[in-house]
Automatic annotation (TrEMBL):
It is found in: Cell membrane. It is a multi-pass membrane protein. It comes from the Archaea. The chain crosses the membrane at residues 7-27, 39-58, 79-101, 107-127, 139-169. GO terms for cellular component: plasma membrane. Keywords: Cell membrane, Membrane, Transmembrane, Transmembrane helix. It holds the Pfam family MarC. The lineage of its organism: Archaea, Methanobacteriati, Methanobacteriota, Stenosarchaea group, Methanomicrobia. Its main location: membrane. This is UPF0056 membrane protein.
Length: 172
């Protein structure tokens, strides 16, 4: 479990760092303003939050099933990196957050936050069985709903600041 947690957080970390370092280049290359990305990313975060709060699944999970079926070919280490590290730990919501924070607060501060977050995630993955046993299924469900609600509130704020920024750009 320790090795799988390390691989998953490593894959997520590499992806987060890539988007953190190249976010300005990506924005410039695509001609996207940070404010537009805030609105689009905020919508994605809002949808993810709704999925958590309401227990919805948007977009299906057929890709995950294919990955699980072919687990014999890719091995447990690779499977942990692909299945956990990519869509779960570093999906659209995480990429959006890292890019926005990197552009707003700078690479160094965001890098420190990413490293601390990855370390916390790694610890949670390692001790997940003990945490589940300690808290119980009901408490974990309640906590996930609260986190989903907080995520939707953060998303609304991100969308709002993006809209205000776009209005300011159009007036200027």
């Amino acid at each position: 479990m320790i090795r799988q947690a390390f691989v998953a957080t490593g894959v997520a970390g590499v992806l987060m760092l890539t988007f953190l370092i190249f976010n300005n280049l990506l924005f410039d290359l695509l001609g996207i303003e940070l404010e537009s990305f805030k609105v689009a990313g905020g919508i994605i975060l809002f949808i993810l939050g709704l999925q958590i709060v309401l227990g919805l699944e948007i977009g299906g999970s057929s890709a995950g099933h294919k990955s699980l079926e072919s687990s014999d070919r890719i091995g447990k280490k690779s499977m942990a990196g692909v299945i956990i590290g990519t869509p779960v730990m570093c999906g659209p919501g995480t990429i959006t957050t890292v890019m926005i924070l990197g552009a707003q607060d700078g690479i160094i501060l965001t890098l420190v936050a990413v490293i601390l977050a990855l370390f916390c995630i790694w610890l949670i993955l390692i001790f997940s069985a003990q945490i589940k046993k300690l808290l119980g299924e009901t408490v974990l469900v309640i906590l996930s709903k609260i986190v989903g609600l907080l995520l939707t509130a953060i998303a609304v704020h991100t969308i709002w600041t993006g809209i205000l920024g776009l209005i300011a750009l159009s007036v200027a």
